[in-house]
Task: structure prediction
Amino acid sequence: MTINSVSFGLLSVDEWRDNIVAAARTQIQNFKLTPQQNQDLKKEIEAIMHGLLNKAIDSIENPGKNVGKKLKKLAFNALVDRNKIQKEVPSYAQKVIDEINKPSSYSRLKNIALTELDSMKSKTYDSSKNAGQFLMDSIFSKYKVTDKPSFNKQSVIDQAQIRTQTYNWAFGMLGGVIAILLIWWLVRNTPNLHTPLYTLSILSALILLLVGITTTMIQIDARISSMDFHILGQDVTFKDQVLYFQSKSIVDVVQILIQTGKVDSMIVGVLILIFSILFPLTKLVSTGIYMLDKRRWAKNKFIHYFAFKSGKWSMADVLVIAILMTFIGFNGIVNNSLSDLNIDDGTITSITTNNTSMQPGYIIFIGFVIYSFTLSAILENISHLRNIVVVDKN
Result:
């Protein structure tokens, strides 16, 4: 997302400079005076020539006391027809226009303009040019591409593969959990298999929890898919400009909240860590210990509490709902904000895209919450059966 950030596109001085210079270069290369421009320029040249002639004649006819200048005046009046010279001005102006319209003259003018344009380009750049270029070069090198278009093309392919693989793994994990629950239903009346099967269930639940809290749950992606400007007779287009992008897991959120240094944020981060991560983790470990060591640990208050009574303190289910509501809220805010950027006024055309979405981590975490509730019910049933067996033996 860094490569397509507006910092390196729509808000980049370098990008605007290159686009404007390219448009100006095209205009210079195609420059040619129109008939109307020739006519207007001829009038301007005639006015200048008339002014220069009048000034020169006035200077000659007002020699002052200088004898030499008085002689020049006499010679001028005797040999030169002032009105005739003024009448020749249009023909002189036309000769100037003809000279300007020669290919060689256009070539010289274009070379002068292009030289000045290149000079202006060399003096215009981002203050962070070196750092930004180094970052982009390092990214291109990492992904073995040479420019932005090839990077975008390759990233689309890679993202599609990663997305497919991630969802396949997510649904595969949930499929494995469903298979374990199906086995539970089949062996529900076989007590000898309860302990090893519950141990397997605990391990699978731990995997779901750890993957769920470390895998991306929500992705906020707001971007301008296309923005077109009409400048200097040329179309300037910016594609796929990322305005805002965040992709976080529960662990990422907790880490960010704690690292802010603000007391209120740190408290929220610690609460999420305790009630939505540590409590479910401790509960799973406690139930596993309870099942493996039936007699010794069954009466331990700490193990018994976390195995049977800590569920009400676990906020995992609440967090699932909170994340869903957060997604709905963010999605609405992003849609509303981006709608204001959709423009089509003839000069600027802008199309925005909201790619905000739930990610596989959310699916896995929901699976863990449901699975955890189911395992709690299974444990209650197993414990009840144990108590019955103990009573019967006594």
About this structure: The radius of gyration is 41 Å. The beta strands are 218-231, 234-248, 343-344, 348-354, 357-358. The chain has two domains: 6-141, 148-393. The longest strand covers residues 234-248.
